[in-house]
Automatic annotation (TrEMBL):
This is Divergent PAP2 family protein. It comes from the Bacteria. The keyword Transit peptide does not apply. InterPro entries: DUF212 (IPR003832). Keywords: Membrane, Transmembrane, Transmembrane helix. The keyword DNA repair does not apply. The chain crosses the membrane at residues 62-81, 122-142. Pfam families: DUF212 (PF02681).
Amino acid sequence: MDYSYALTPFLAWLVAGVMKFCINSIKAGQLAFGLIGYGGLPSNHSAIVSSMASLIALKEGIAHPAFGVAVTLAFIVILDANSLRRQVGKHATAINQLAAGSKDQKERPELRERMGHTHAEIVAGILVGIAVAVAVKVLPGLF
């Protein structure tokens, strides 16, 4: 049985997440558990969707209908990571600044401002996804 289609996105998420944790920990000079989540290098979302599109391309070919569906999904997720979620982060920054001067600021938790991704973070996520798909295709016995 071929579980590679179910395993590949999980592996891409894991690899990107571990990389992001290591990079954030090095930047922070300590273990960066508080920085786990949305945003950062590489993009987990981009890694996940690009791993599936890449695996389908490698195993089925780019003419297969599933590849078209995977690429469409990847575009939606990547555009969302770059535009919508970045705007949400900007809104959170503005709301946090407004709330900083309010009386009940202590009752309200600060909104997370790091939500979206830069182009470099997205490209890094895509490269991680492609690399994971290639590893799964080339080393099928390990996965």
